[in-house]
Amino acid sequence: MSSVFLLLYDFLKDKKKLVYLLFSVLVAVMLFFTFKVNYIENVSQMLPQGKTNEEALSLLENSSIANRIIFTISAKKNTLANEPDSLIAFTDVLAEKIQEHYQKYITSIEYTANDSLFANMLQVIQNNLPLFLEEKDYEKLDSIITKNAIDQKVKNNFQTLTSPAGLALKDFVVNDPLGLNYIVFNKLKNFQQDDNIELYDNHFITKDKQRVLFFLTLKYPSSETVTNTQFFTSLDNEIKQLSNSNYSVSYFGETAVATANAHQIRIDSIYSTIFTIVFLLLLIIVFYRNLIAPVLVIVPVVFGSLFALSFIYFFKGSISIISVGAGAVVLGIAVNYSLHFLTHYRSNLNIRATIKDIAFPMIIGSLTTIGGFLSLQFLSIPVLNDLGLFAGLSLIGAAFATLVFLPHFSTLNYISKNSSVFDRIYLTLNKMHGNKWIAIAFVVLTPFLYHFAKNVQFENDMMKLNFMTPQLQQAEKVFNEFSSFYNKSVYVVAKGASLNDALDNNKKILPALNKMLDAKQISGFTDISTILVSEKEQQKRIENWNSFWTSEKKNTTYQYLKNAGNNNHFNETAFLPFLNQVDKNYTVLSNPDFLSLKNALLKIS
pTM score, two decimals? Predict the structure, then answer.
């Protein structure tokens, strides 16, 4: 095997210019393709990939939920700025500045309640009541249409209409004298993000009036870390300019955390690589006692890294930057190839003899190491796949450069034969061979170390994969003090060939969730299918409504209403809306109504 490299050396040894030209061209070509590689800065690359996980991650990265950032504005201690009106005034200024300066980064900003959106949803419910009634709701409906319940309801309606509140509630009372719509309206409370948040002057504020909140939806998913880094960096500067000694501004969200992760990964990768290279260079300088030897040692390492990245461009086009950073460990392995070569050359001062001595053991030894790294391709974690590919290809390139180019770059002028501290350490280690006391020490230490090693546990908290800046940690702490929004929330996703299929499939998980709720394994859940249902389910609910309102039940209920109305100063026409409601020929929701519901629910949930 060494004969091939010897022949190549003999062919090129008198053609130094050709060697340097060939090496330069290869490096230039590899540099060109290395710069074309797409470096992925997404921490989700550290998670196992499979069909289920890929779908979940894809949904999360492309969902408006993941792209939502929540801001909180509060007054700093010992200031007079904690009045709600002052906080709201500052919130308006900040929100308007963000809206004005960062339109290219955001899709929407919500710092006031959207009354029209909510009003449209209520109107859709009023016009299509049966479509929102579940089977269990008919038990409540039965209790509403009893004689005593109707008498009390009509009496309450009269009191409401004759009170100051009657001006605002007149339409609700007249159009729905029995209050049937409120069966559905009460379900909307389940979509409220947090009981501790309420409206004040049309703004979102905590009940203690100490914090004002607003929401930002980013245009780019969390995977677009470069663009999002630009946004958050600029946003931080904007907040610093607007904030003063009276106000504190915090923000938190999945995209903010992902961006901080990507930034830290980038920095850590650069620093770890620089530290490794500098440490190796210093070590080599001490060993060889000149400045040229470190360059010779590093050349195959750099060549191997460029070789790996250029091939990765053709294989897949991208690589996780986490893998490149972790790949700094490969430098310690790849540098051994050039060290072996130069150390042998330092001993025998003959290039051909050095190639002959090390070619076979280097190739065999590197094959096992390369095979070990490439076996990471069989795992389901992308970052380990990338690490294995990068490391394996780097070692192939480093071994190739060591055996083909390094012999032509090495000269006796650069290799010192003077003894060094490493030589003395080597001699000392050789004297330890066969020492029975050292063998006894290892035998004694092994069970002692095993006692502690067996207690080591794997980290099973996946949240600790995330890096958060002190600002984000403080923001999370602040949010968790008054809200459970970011505290152990789990999203259950149903899918289907269409939205209707997805809504039908969503209903299948409800029995399991209710069982978990009864067992107190979860504190609660929000089910969008209580309001937003498939066409199939809508048709079923219409049939339930028609079956419930038999002619006898309808006439009896209307008679109860008229009798109660006579006793409370209502004329008979006041209850015609009830007849219209039960006699109406209902159909499934139109597209505009369905979209109104969907948009409203996504905003409030």
Answer: 0.66
